[in-house]
Amino acid sequence: MDITLRRCIEALEAAIGDPRGGLPEEVFRFVSRITPLINVDLLIKDDRSRTLLTWRDDERFGSGWHVPGGIIRFKESAAERIHACATEELGADVSCEDAPLLVVEGTAPQETRGHHISLLFRCRLLGPPDEAKRAGSGAPSAGQWRWHERCPPDLLDVQRAYADFF
Prior knowledge:
22% of the residues lie in helices and 29% in strands. With 166 residues, the protein is α+β, with helices and mostly antiparallel strands.
């Protein structure tokens, strides 16, 4: 192995430390440039067939409604990430089907996180979402949720593949 490559690997190992604690942001950004990221998305419907979405507002995806979800962490199962996302984004727990409804792959070579594989899972709430995070009738804020009867026009572009499930 080339001495420069060996030094780079040693520097990465030193930066990571114990990987069970998560990757430092700089290492995550590097890894996301060289390997696809796999994320889970939670399709949650109520008894009236409405879909539960959360508002996102960040520099990566912009502003808009999205299906709750997130990137699977190192040594974490898809089911573990689904439960973590439900807790973090909705303040609730869910049950989910064993297999995804849809697998969507996207690439954007010019971006740092240029390759992702999204797994859409049908989920069911095991309790109500946190009312403190409910979006009112006005403009939502980042992290708030709302039930939707149909696909909203301001669904994030990256999740347009899910529009037929609403």
